[in-house]
Design goal:
alpha/beta, two-stranded antiparallel sheet, globular
């Protein structure tokens, strides 16, 4: 609510009587606004105390999912112990004899091993001396540098370390530069920035292919978004993924038009066809506007500019009509590039994601009830009873998900109604339950598609790492910097989900060591084949 308002500095000679009066009034408004902000914060603290919480609480992750987990997991004390050093590679053996002389007649009883793990950090500079030969014909022959150098004066191992520290460990560029200097690496801040941004096309291409593959073969995607400043302006990042991959895309907005644009996987075309018209009709675009746009039949527009010109040419000036029509042609374009109609989109309820087969997160739904402020003991009791019923029902949904049964699905569908149509003494709670009840089909999509998770915890975990990076380094300053941030965040998260070391992945891609790591999209396909059997 509070804003950092500052009275403008107007030279004295330019301050007329009216300006002076306005400046005085503005100072009063700023002072009043600050007092209101302090009062609001004070009232928030009192409300939190009444709810039994601390001042300015930090909401902890919901325990709805973990508390209803009935899987037979071994307790911490029941884990089987295994040797921590059995798989280590021994680089050096050093035999240590007893300190005192061994008496004659003693028998050798073998060794007692004591393994010490260590690393060696040192610079390793190579001078490539390219031979130059002048042939009798006057032609100059010269040696060629190794391809993995790509003309850089810094080796692939050093580049791996820089990328790993910056994107995986969230080390800032100034700290990374200081560290390299302390280790004896002669590198400037500009050179370090170039190593992080330049010649990363292979990584960008793998990231783009990852989204295309994920959208074409996945039964569902979980989505979320967060703020991401760019060039001093507010922007947004959209997360798309599931248990097999994660993909991030930063843009200036988080509208549905933006979401459909991302689902086109880098394409810039628009399709005005039956799929687009079906969406427009579903969203309530007037029929005369639809017919007017389709007066020349189905069309394919190569760019968004061409589509905008089409709207202008048909004099579609209403902002809502233009938005719905644009969403329709973008969705049709995404469908033509591999997106399928049966893809389930799981979200926390944000409107821009409510498309195709939409599923809602139960954790976010339960949180709405938990965050309600009771006005008396009866209200508090009503909230606890409703939450208890929701937790029990959620536990049954998890059991169904583990062992789907059509009869149980029918019963669960019926048992949803008594929970969310009940009448309590708390009218605000009744209205909330009524709103949740209207989302019944989206909350119970799991009965039709058991493979879809009941929550968006995966997306929350994925984007949390991105937010951590944003808090440490702030926003991006160049378009290439923003692109690299999205690319390496996507690749790192996907490696983790595929059980691949991100360090080994970087070494493999940069030619330091050959771990024969397949393309991440190929791993995603193999995982889908293993899950479906075809």
């Amino acid at each position: 609510m509070s804003q950092n308002w500052v009275v403008p500095d107007i030279p004295e000679e330019q301050q007329t009587t009216v300006v002076k009066a306005l400046l005085a009034l503005l100072e009063q408004v700023i002072d009043h606004n600050q007092k209101l902000s302090e009062e609001v914060e004070h009232l928030k603290d009192e409300i939190n105390i009444l709810k039994g919480e601390k001042k300015k609480p930090t909401f902890k992750p919901s325990k709805l999912d973990k508390s209803t987990d009935t899987s037979n997991k071994k307790k911490k004390g029941q884990r089987q112990k295994k040797s921590k050093t059995s798989s280590l590679i021994i680089h050096q053996d050093e035999v240590v004899p007893p300190r005192s002389p061994v008496p004659d007649g003693s028998r050798f009883k073998g060794y007692q091993d004591f393994i010490v793990q260590d690393i060696s950090i040192q610079t390793h500079n190579t001078r490539y001396r390219l031979e130059r030969w002048l042939t009798p014909e006057g032609k100059l022959l010269s040696g060629k540098l190794p391809e993995n150098l790509k003309g850089r004066h810094f080796g692939a191992e050093l580049l791996c370390y820089i990328l790993y520290q910056y994107h995986h460990c969230h080390t800032t560029q100034p700290l990374l530069l200081e560290q390299l200097h302390e280790w004896g690496v002669e590198i400037s801040s500009g050179q370090l920035n170039a190593l992080l941004l330049d010649k990363q096309e292979a990584f960008h291409a793998e990231k783009d292919t990852l989204l295309k593959t994920g959208l074409s073969i996945s039964p569902y995607i979980s989505v979320d978004d967060s703020g991401a400043r760019h060039q001093g302006k507010n922007g947004f990042v959209t997360q798309i993924g599931n248990d097999g991959f994660a993909w991030f895309g930063s843009t200036a907005s988080k509208s549905r038009v933006n979401f459909f644009s991302l689902l086109r996987v880098g394409h810039d075309d628009c399709h005005l066809n039956s799929a687009a018209l079906a969406y427009m009709e579903q969203q309530g675009l007037p029929e005369p506007v639809q017919k007017h746009l389709l007066s020349n039949g189905t069309q394919h527009f190569k760019t968004m500019a061409c589509w905008t010109a089409h709207l202008d040419g048909h004099e579609v000036k209403n902002k809502t009509h233009r938005r719905i029509a644009t969403e329709g042609v973008l969705l049709a374009s995404a469908l033509s590039h591999g997106l399928h109609q049966d893809l389930v989109i799981l979200s926390d309820g944000a409107g821009q994601f409510n498309v195709l087969k939409h599923a809602l997160c139960w954790v976010h739904t339960e949180r709405l009830i938990h965050k309600m402020l009771p006005l008396n003991d009866q209200h508090r009791q009503d909230i606890e009873q409703v939450r208890g019923a929701v937790w029990n029902y959620y536990s049954r949904l998890k059991a169904f998900q583990a062992d789907p049964d059509p009869k149980k699905a029918i019963q669960l569908w019926r048992d949803f109604d008594p929970i969310f149509t009940r009448k309590t003494t708390y009218q605000t709670l009744n209205l909330l339950l009524k709103r949740i009840y209207r989302k019944k089909s989206e909350l119970l999509l799991v009965l039709e598609r058991p493979e879809v998770p009941l929550h968006t915890n995966g997306s929350e975990t994925d984007i949390r790492d991105f937010v951590k990076k944003k808090k440490i380094s702030g926003g991006t300053r160049s378009d290439e910097g923003r692109r690299c941030r999205d690319t390496f965040a996507s690749l790192k998260k996907t490696c983790r989900k595929q059980g691949i070391s991100f360090w080994q992945y970087l070494q493999d891609r940069l030619g330091v060591k050959k771990y024969l790591t397949p393309d991440l999209s190929e791993l995603l396909k193999q995982r889908a084949i293993a899950a479906t059997g075809y």
